[in-house]
Specification:
Elements lengths: L4 E7 L17 E6 L2 E5 L5 H11 L3 E6 L4 H4 L14 E6 L7 H7 L16 E6 L5 E4 L2 E7 L7 E7 L2 E6 L10 H7 L4 E5 L18 H11 L3 E5 L7 H14 L3 E3 L5 E5 L2 E5 L3
Parallel strand pairs: 3-4, 4-5, 5-6, 10-11, 11-12, 12-13
Antiparallel strand pairs: 1-2, 1-14, 2-3, 7-8, 8-9, 9-10, 14-15
Helix pairs in contact: 4-5
Length: 280
């Protein structure tokens, strides 16, 4: 069994999918792999591509951990082919949303007049699981720790650990005047921190209370938590490829381990550190 962790970005945008971007136009979807264990973080429009891959490769079980239920993080569920095919199993898990049960929320995504296929008519086996805030649990070879983040509707971050390595997924969270102590604890010593950087520091004053952060606050958190690699994530839909690259350059000047997450990018975490490779 390998002690490596791999994270692959299938969707890196926030708010709404945008076509024609080299950095990627699909909304939030990340796959983490350790040995035979595969966990999907969020079900944005990038999930469609992953579903097609799983059909082709014959991977019949999928576990999806949702940060929250805003449209850009669940819009791929109805287009994830395995949920329609007998013999395929999909578990969709997430924390309390404060409005309805997690099961009722997922079922509402497959319901008229918003979608033509009812949840009970799905051909695959689809189950839901409501997680407890601040929970810690095991999925295969990966240990998962949750934390409630700062967003207008409940959002949860995840720390995934395997073989002494760790990846932290913290999107749709707004920084405070100081480094968020909850996130500092969740991300402490992580190999990779994937963090919401939707706005620039100049844009942020007009967006206070919207539940998103900046590359500057990402750098502050990464330093305070002692992480090795910072992946700027949840890029604003208005952000051009050149603008994403410019933000990356500024962040790297302040924190050399910073990169802008791009669709198709894979980060490998192992004894030799963190290595980046693009899609073939």
């Amino acid at each position: 069994m390998t002690h490596d962790l791999t994270v692959r970005f299938l969707g890196v945008r926030g708010s709404i999918a945008v076509p024609g971007m080299e950095a990627g136009g699909n909304t939030a979807c990340v796959e983490v792999v350790a040995g035979d264990t595969r966990i999907i973080l969020d079900a944005g429009t990038g999930l469609r591509t992953l579903g097609n891959e799983r059909m082709a490769s014959g991977i019949r079980h999928s576990t999806i951990l949702l940060s929250h239920l805003h449209w850009d993080h669940v819009a791929g569920l109805q287009f994830f082919t395995p949920v329609y095919v007998p013999g395929f199993r999909t578990e969709i898990a997430g924390g309390p949303n404060g409005v309805m049960s997690h099961d009722a929320a997922i079922r509402s995504l497959f319901k008229a007049p918003f979608f033509p296929v009812d949840f009970d008519d799905l051909g695959g086996v689809v189950t839901t699981r409501e997680l407890r805030p601040n929970d810690r649990f095991q999925i295969g070879d990966i240990t998962v720790t949750m934390a409630r983040l700062n967003h207008p509707d409940p959002v949860y971050g995840y720390r995934l650990e395997h073989g002494g390595h760790s990846i932290v997924y913290a999107t749709d969270t707004e920084h405070f005047a100081c480094v968020d102590p909850t996130l500092k604890k969740l991300a402490a010593g992580a190999d990779i921190l994937i963090y919401d950087s939707q706005y620039t520091p100049d844009e942020y004053p007009a967006k206070v209370g919207w539940g998103h952060s900046t590359w500057g606050s990402a750098v502050e958190l990464a330093r305070a938590a002692g992480v090795r690699q910072l992946a700027l994530f949840h890029h604003d839909p208005r952000r051009s490829d050149d603008a994403v690259a410019a933000i990356e350059t500024r962040a790297q000047a302040a924190f050399p381990g910073a990169i802008a997450a791009r669709e198709g990018m894979t980060l490998d975490v192992g004894a030799g550190g963190v290595c980046s490779r693009d899609a073939a």
